[in-house]
């Protein structure tokens, strides 16, 4: 291995760290600075479009500086050698982490916040990554997250949206609906892809599996299934990030705020149907409210008894009516002749 030719006359390649469609990544030693690096080496036979994307990736990454981006140290783009020398991140990819099973919601929120913060920086520099997926996310041993592989990224105002062969660029399982439809691809496409990546972290499975065309079209048929039992901020973020309409998605900066817990009202809540309001009632004093039926009968019986007692007492207090006095039948002749008898009767009645 020590006799193998050096890459660029400087970098000694070691173990393979992985590979993609156009290049392989190796652990390497920078013999000039005596430090470990990661070397991304293009495979031989790459077409002109592939070489152009490689050079663009190198220049884009070299012009960016963020703690969540892999630092670019060097690159070469000759016909004989195409390579990119980068900071070596000791750890694993997010794809490796997911392979061990679903991740806890809190860890997913933390990973999402870090990636969203990186994307916010990238977007502020006018760049759309366009290939956010678990294998392009590196996690160091201390839990720090890095976004890598800008091989198919584009400036936001670039016209080209497809490769020279006419194929839409991106990974089918993580494409946004507008990418599938061949529409304008902007910052919201990265937000959508990040939402699907975080959803995969939570469930342990790809949301839209299958062959390229099958996977790509599936998102046009149904929205992703976001588990309802997630913490509210995480659930709200994923639903908003993966909505079909790119104009309705939050920005990467807003996602970073919500996922980190620094904000809770940046992303609008998905409102549930509101229940009908209760019927309006008049405000009554407590004394005006009727007592329950089971408590009313003692009062009714007591009241009736009291009324009856008052009636009886009133009846007993009323004196008996005196019999209407009647004159004894008159006797004797009418007129003056009987006057003495009438006077005698009247005197008797008065005395009585």
TrEMBL record:
Source organism's superkingdom?
Bacteria
Entry EC number(s):
2.7.11.1
One GO molecular function term of this record is:
protein serine/threonine kinase activity
Record-annotated Protein kinase domain positions: 11-267
UniProt cross-references to SMART domains, sorted A to Z: S_TKc
Q: Which InterPro entries match?
A: Kinase-like_dom_sf (IPR011009), Prot_kinase_dom (IPR000719), Protein_kinase_ATP_BS (IPR017441), Ser/Thr_kinase_AS (IPR008271)
Top EC class for this record: transferase
Whether Magnesium counts among this entry's keywords is no
Question: Where is ATP annotated to bind?
Answer: 40
UniProt key word Nucleotide-binding = yes
* This protein's UniProt keywords: ATP-binding, Kinase, Nucleotide-binding, Serine/threonine-protein kinase, Transferase
PANTHER family annotated for this entry? MITOGEN-ACTIVATED PROTEIN KINASE KINASE KINASE 20-RELATED, SERINE_THREONINE-PROTEIN KINASE NEKL-3
Query: What is the protein name given in its UniProt record?
Result: non-specific serine/threonine protein kinase
Organism lineage string = Bacteria, Bacillati, Actinomycetota, Actinomycetes, Pseudonocardiales
């Amino acid at each position: 291995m020590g006799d193998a030719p050096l890459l660029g006359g400087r970098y000694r390649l070691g173990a393979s760290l992985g590979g993609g469609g156009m290049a392989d990544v190796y652990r390497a030693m920078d013999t000039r600075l005596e430090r470990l690096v990661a070397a991304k080496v293009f495979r031989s036979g790459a077409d002109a479009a592939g070489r152009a994307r490689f050079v663009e990736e190198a220049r884009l990454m070299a012009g960016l500086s963020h703690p969540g981006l892999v630092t670019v140290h060097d690159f070469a783009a000759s016909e004989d050698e195409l390579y990119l020398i980068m900071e070596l991140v000791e750890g694993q990819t997010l794809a490796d982490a997911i392979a061990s099973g679903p991740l806890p919601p809190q860890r997913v929120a933390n990973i999402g916040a870090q990636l969203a913060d990186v994307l916010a920086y990238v977007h502020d520099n006018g760049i759309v990554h366009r290939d956010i997926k678990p294998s392009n996310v590196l996690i160091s041993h201390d839990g720090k997250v890095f976004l890598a592989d800008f091989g198919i990224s584009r400036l936001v105002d670039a016209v080209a949206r497809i490769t020279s062969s006419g194929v839409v660029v991106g990974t089918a399982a993580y494409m946004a609906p507008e990418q599938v439809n061949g529409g304008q691809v902007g910052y919201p496409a990265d937000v959508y892809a990040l939402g699907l990546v975080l959803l995969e972290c939570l469930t342990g499975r790809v949301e839209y599996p299958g062959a390229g065309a099958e996977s790509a079209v599936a998102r046009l048929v149904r929205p992703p299934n976001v588990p309802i039992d997630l913490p509210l901020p995480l659930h709200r973020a994923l639903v908003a990030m993966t909505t079909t309409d790119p104009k309705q998605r939050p920005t990467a900066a807003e996602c970073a705020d919500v996922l980190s817990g620094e904000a809770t009202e940046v992303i609008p809540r998905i409102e549930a149907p509101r229940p009908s309001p209760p019927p309006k009632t008049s405000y009554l004093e407590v004394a005006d409210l009727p007592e329950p039926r089971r408590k009313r009968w003692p009062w009714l019986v007591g009241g009736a008894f009291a009324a009856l007692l008052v009636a009886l007492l009133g009846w007993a207090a009323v004196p008996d009516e005196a019999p209407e006095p009647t004159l004894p039948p008159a006797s004797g002749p009418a007129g003056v002749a009987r006057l003495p008898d009438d006077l005698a009767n009247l005197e008797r009645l008065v005395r009585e």
